[in-house]
Amino acid sequence: MRRRRGLRVLLAGVLFAVWALAAGGCSGSPDERTLVVLGPWTDGEEKPFKEALKAMEKKTGHSYVYKGTRSLRETLVAQLQAGAPPDVAILNSPGELVEYVKAGDVHWLPERVAGAAVPPWAPTVTVTGPNGGAQTRAYWVPIRVDLKSLVWSRADADAEDADPVWCLGMGSGATSGWPGTDWLEDLILQRSGPDAYEDWATGRTEWRKTAPLWREWGRMMTADGRSPGTEALADFELLDDGRYGLLNRGDCTHEHQGSFIRRHYGDDVLPRPTSEYLDGARSAAQGGENAFEVSGDMAAVFRASDAAWDLLGRLTSEEARTSWANAAQAGERPFFPGGTTSSVPPSPGTQGVQDLFDSAGQICFDASDAMPPTLRDAFHRAVLEFVGDPGNEALLTRLLEQLEAERKLQVLDNSFVLDDLCANAVGE
Length: 428
Known about the structure:
The chain is of the alpha/beta class. It has helices at residues 2-22, 47-60, 72-81, 94-102, 111-114, 178-192, 194-201, 211-221, 306-315, 318-327, 348-359, 367-370, 373-386, 393-412; strands at residues 35-39, 64-68, 88-91, 125-128, 134-137, 141-147, 150-154, 254-256, 269-273, 291-301, 362-365, 422-424. It has 14 helices and twelve strands. Strands 1, 2, 3, 6, 10, 11 and 12 form a seven-stranded mixed sheet that branches. Strands 8-7-9 form a three-stranded antiparallel sheet.
């Protein structure tokens, strides 16, 4: 019995040590210890953000540690299960954030930072408490945003008499398939308009009604007798020879991708709206609106303290944004709600994106990122299967039936709680 008790004490000591390391290994009150920020930027993309954090340290006296990972969901879930979440996590999926809100892992925004919850990146969430009472609050703020509904190409590839040869690459690790869902979301937005897009993204429209857009995308992928094959399953940005950027492969002329892809290209690759490549995209159904899909990196507090709320406020401040932008290279300058500022001249690609941001009439948040995670993941899988045989009607019917079954389950579980995915872009 003594031996077993000694073993229990030893195990307790080991578990405590592991917990302390996971929590940052710091002692003291929450406002004295190092604050941990978990985020999605790696491979050098995180350097400007870390520079901005260093500039904040000089102002606040706090220490900030940034931990970047491409496996953001898996990392955060593991930390929550270990009882050692980061102080602040930066996520790009409102659908996932809603799950954390429902579980009580995310703290709602106090009044002093709630004003930074800018739509459509940070819609309010209504949560029903244990006593049945419902409260509607904001839980996260956007700290960096990106413009989608873009097609990138070189000037010599955009001759009026040349049909696009579309770059294809669906691979992205555990989230493979999202470049394809981006295509379908954009087609729905451009063909049907923001209202129909929002109804579909928030679970109010049956998936079978999207079938014509899947067929259209399939025809674009297989133009001139092309067959996507294994090419479509390649990495969305990394080439076999170690270079980045699908346009650098030499076998395609146009790439449908968000504004972040500009970091892989020189000044000769510029963006244009997707609508310019779709006959009849600006239809009466769209109401003549110049609509763009957007995405964002949103910050939420998982360990509440005055220092954490102070950090959240600073991350959305003009001072922090300027520091972040100045530390970035011209082709990697981040965009923010309301525009970007920097003393460094922008690259042509960055300026092109900003001009399109400024021209937008409506902006709509990435639909799959706003869906409940199980439906989003099913959408990713369906895209990967579809690109293998895009002309197979029986396959498309089966995939849409599977997605519709998942949508109905999420409706029954009351998982669709985000409504306002589109907003007027004036001032963005």
